[in-house]
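1st attempt posting a full record on here, be nice pls
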Amino acid sequence: MKSEDLKSIPIKDNKNTIDSNKLQVDIYVPLDACACEWSQFMNLIFNAITPYIKHIKHETKSLNSEEAQKLNLHSKCVVVDGEKKFSSSFALKKELPKLLKAKGLI
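the predicted structure (as tokens):
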């Protein structure tokens, strides 16, 4: 490929695009607090999502962000596809296969 050809390839902003081929998992934790407050929660969440990681796009977000306030979030939780909220890894682990099947990913 020539350098002129590379100039014509559009570059997508991955942060602002939703990948319809993946389940969006946003993990909300108090990032401004000591990691000891939320690291165990993160470990449990990653244990739940790791078996399906190739079908998931995950992002860690601050519980104290404007986005979290708009979603009315007050404690550590996971929001899937901007709609479904999970406050425990057990509930997420139980529902994740169903959500992935409903979206046709597995």
